[in-house]
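<derive_structure_tokens>
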Amino acid sequence: MATSHQASGIQAGRLAAPEIADNFGDLHPAYDAHEAAVAADRCYFCYDAPCMTACPTSIDIPQFIREIQAGHPASAAKTILDQNILGGMCARVCPTETLCEEACVREAAEGKPVEIGRLQRFATDVLMARDEHPFSRAPSTGKKVAVAGAGPAGLSAAHRLAMLGHDVVVYDAKSKAGGLNEFGIAAYKSTEDFAAREVDWLLKIGGITMQYGKKLGEDLSLETLKADYDAVFLSIGLAGVNALRAAGEDMDGVRDAVDFIEELRQADDLTKLPVGRNVVVIGGGMTAVDAAVQSKLLGAENVTIAYRRGRDAMGASRFEQDLAASKGVTLMFNVMPKAILGEGAAAEIELEYTDVHDGRVTGTGETLRLAADQVYKAIGQTLEGQPAELELEDRKIMVDATGRTSVANVWAGGDCASGGEDLTVTAVAEGRDAAMDIHSTLMG
């Protein structure tokens, strides 16, 4: 592997440690108390609160901003966490620019919304720094619930169930909790090990036992979970990655973007992380942007995102697209991979220009080649290891509005479940709502 890395220009230490540390600093630095007070003063406290309607977890945004304005950030945090127990992480990773802040009246009037995400971060950071948990457990119900998957949906469900007095065991295939918050989001969005610290804080509610290295379909079966627990919540995410279906896909230097992001997020020393000279990322979502930007921040000379449709169809928000461009990433639209070329290791990629008619992408026959010693696949993930007895919809676990699956006493939420958007904040809402339905079902 090392030989082909060296031959193909993939190497570690392209930048010195201080430059890398600077590159991977906080994307949205935290407000201090004065900045938060000034930002809170801009809120009109609208009676119909369009920002609140736009929030998938329905946080009472005018209320928490009013509490910050009044000098009570811990109370503001409680208002946030009542609805969204991962409010600290969501404040960092949520695409607020297309949700609450896009709906803000000041955005419509002035093109400058109240910075709701940064205010949310300020409040939750104040509370978490106090090292206290604002919620306490109800008396024990004697009921046991299994949660498979310790990502945002699973953690949200587990916390709400524990708070309501149930005993919860959370199983996860990885060696630590957090799901995509821990393993799948750019490092500059979650600095100073925040995702792991938030999990530790969440678990202070009590009543939640964590079991790592346990994967559904391998170490766990749905039948056993159903037999051993009063209810089961599945939040197993999407572990599979779609194939490029391009010649040369198996060459050295071609890999899944999610694996690269996970390796980067778990690395102790980013100067030791190898990166190509010429990196091409295939895809148009947040994962594609995160992989491309971080390649650039590690010292790659040329980084290109190649997307098969036009700019408006990109899954990544315009803010994310502009962020990539500001870091020197080239965005190419209406191109798709045809072949990866090289002697055992990637050296070039051949792309074909595309047309889109009635939503269908077709090749035009016209091609171009780019130097590419590293190619990342970020073209969507697929469900893997789901129990056969569960009905699927659009290749995900079919659920109703409360998260119930086709199997009695089994609920599901997050990326593995049908409907909804693949966002941390949506997963939190789905976990919370399923927990409430599990509670009412178990309590009769």
Observations:
- The two ends are 58 Å apart (CA to CA).
- The chain has a mean pLDDT of 95.
- The longest strand covers residues 360-371.
- The domain at 33-129 is CATH 1.10.1060.10 (Fumarate Reductase Iron-sulfur Protein; Chain B, domain 2).
